[in-house]
Amino acid sequence: MALNHLDSLLQQSQDTVSAMLDDGLDAEQEFEIEHHLVSANFDLLEKAAVDLVKAGFHVDDAEEFETDEGETWFYFAAVTSAKLDDVVLAEQTRVVCEIANKIGVEYDGWGTYLGDEEE
After folding, report:
1. Range of the domain at 57
2. What b-and-e string marks burial along 89-110, b requiring 16 or more CB atoms within 10 Å of the CB?
Protein backbone atom coordinates (compact mmCIF):
# COMPACT_ATOMS: atom_id res chain seq x y z
CA MET A 1 0.00 0.00 0.00
CA ALA A 2 1.32 3.43 -0.94
CA LEU A 3 2.33 5.79 1.83
CA ASN A 4 1.09 8.80 -0.17
CA HIS A 5 -2.24 8.85 -1.96
CA LEU A 6 -1.80 10.34 -5.43
CA ASP A 7 -5.50 11.02 -6.03
CA SER A 8 -5.76 13.10 -2.84
CA LEU A 9 -2.56 14.97 -3.66
CA LEU A 10 -3.75 15.71 -7.21
CA GLN A 11 -7.08 17.01 -5.86
CA GLN A 12 -5.24 19.16 -3.32
CA SER A 13 -3.04 20.54 -6.12
CA GLN A 14 -6.04 21.35 -8.31
CA ASP A 15 -7.87 23.00 -5.39
CA THR A 16 -4.79 25.10 -4.60
CA VAL A 17 -4.43 26.29 -8.19
CA SER A 18 -8.14 27.14 -8.36
CA ALA A 19 -7.99 29.08 -5.09
CA MET A 20 -4.94 31.03 -6.22
CA LEU A 21 -6.58 31.93 -9.53
CA ASP A 22 -9.84 32.85 -7.75
CA ASP A 23 -7.80 35.20 -5.56
CA GLY A 24 -6.70 37.03 -8.70
CA LEU A 25 -3.16 35.73 -9.13
CA ASP A 26 -1.80 35.88 -12.67
CA ALA A 27 -1.88 32.45 -14.34
CA GLU A 28 1.08 33.46 -16.52
CA GLN A 29 3.35 34.43 -13.63
CA GLU A 30 6.12 31.99 -12.68
CA PHE A 31 6.00 30.90 -9.05
CA GLU A 32 8.63 29.12 -7.01
CA ILE A 33 6.98 25.83 -6.11
CA GLU A 34 8.16 23.95 -3.01
CA HIS A 35 7.23 20.26 -2.75
CA HIS A 36 7.56 19.21 0.91
CA LEU A 37 8.86 15.80 1.99
CA VAL A 38 9.27 14.50 5.54
CA SER A 39 10.56 11.37 7.26
CA ALA A 40 11.80 10.16 10.61
CA ASN A 41 14.55 8.35 8.68
CA PHE A 42 17.20 10.78 7.41
CA ASP A 43 18.80 8.17 5.13
CA LEU A 44 15.51 7.57 3.30
CA LEU A 45 14.93 11.30 2.95
CA GLU A 46 18.44 11.63 1.49
CA LYS A 47 17.65 8.92 -1.09
CA ALA A 48 14.49 10.77 -2.08
CA ALA A 49 16.51 13.97 -2.46
CA VAL A 50 18.95 12.27 -4.85
CA ASP A 51 16.08 10.95 -7.00
CA LEU A 52 14.40 14.37 -7.05
CA VAL A 53 17.62 16.06 -8.18
CA LYS A 54 17.85 13.48 -10.98
CA ALA A 55 14.26 14.38 -11.89
CA GLY A 56 15.21 18.06 -12.26
CA PHE A 57 14.29 19.55 -8.90
CA HIS A 58 16.52 21.72 -6.74
CA VAL A 59 16.61 20.25 -3.23
CA ASP A 60 17.07 22.41 -0.14
CA ASP A 61 19.17 21.14 2.75
CA ALA A 62 17.21 18.92 5.11
CA GLU A 63 16.31 20.33 8.50
CA GLU A 64 15.12 18.57 11.59
CA PHE A 65 12.17 19.22 13.86
CA GLU A 66 10.67 17.63 16.93
CA THR A 67 7.13 16.25 16.84
CA ASP A 68 4.62 16.76 19.65
CA GLU A 69 5.56 13.25 20.77
CA GLY A 70 9.23 14.23 21.13
CA GLU A 71 10.42 12.33 18.04
CA THR A 72 13.02 13.84 15.72
CA TRP A 73 11.92 14.06 12.07
CA PHE A 74 13.53 15.63 9.00
CA TYR A 75 12.14 17.62 6.10
CA PHE A 76 13.19 19.40 2.93
CA ALA A 77 11.67 21.17 -0.04
CA ALA A 78 12.16 20.07 -3.63
CA VAL A 79 11.99 23.35 -5.50
CA THR A 80 11.09 24.21 -9.06
CA SER A 81 9.17 26.96 -10.80
CA ALA A 82 5.90 26.84 -12.68
CA LYS A 83 2.96 28.86 -13.81
CA LEU A 84 -0.42 28.18 -12.23
CA ASP A 85 -1.16 25.41 -14.69
CA ASP A 86 -3.12 22.37 -13.46
CA VAL A 87 -1.42 20.03 -15.94
CA VAL A 88 2.13 21.12 -15.10
CA LEU A 89 1.58 21.09 -11.34
CA ALA A 90 -0.24 17.76 -11.51
CA GLU A 91 2.75 16.26 -13.34
CA GLN A 92 5.16 17.65 -10.74
CA THR A 93 2.93 16.24 -7.99
CA ARG A 94 2.84 12.86 -9.73
CA VAL A 95 6.64 12.71 -10.05
CA VAL A 96 7.28 13.73 -6.44
CA CYS A 97 4.61 11.33 -5.14
CA GLU A 98 6.04 8.40 -7.12
CA ILE A 99 9.54 9.06 -5.77
CA ALA A 100 8.25 9.50 -2.20
CA ASN A 101 6.29 6.23 -2.40
CA LYS A 102 9.22 4.35 -3.96
CA ILE A 103 11.58 5.49 -1.19
CA GLY A 104 9.07 5.37 1.66
CA VAL A 105 8.88 9.00 2.79
CA GLU A 106 5.88 11.28 3.24
CA TYR A 107 4.98 13.87 0.61
CA ASP A 108 3.08 16.75 2.19
CA GLY A 109 2.06 18.50 -1.04
CA TRP A 110 3.33 21.72 -2.52
CA GLY A 111 3.17 25.39 -1.71
CA THR A 112 4.55 28.72 -2.76
CA TYR A 113 5.40 32.03 -1.14
CA LEU A 114 3.20 34.92 -2.26
CA GLY A 115 4.71 37.82 -0.36
CA ASP A 116 7.57 40.16 -1.00
CA GLU A 117 10.92 38.39 -0.44
CA GLU A 118 11.88 41.13 2.00
CA GLU A 119 8.82 40.52 4.23
Report:
1. 6-18+29-111
2. bbebbebbbbbbbebebbbbbb
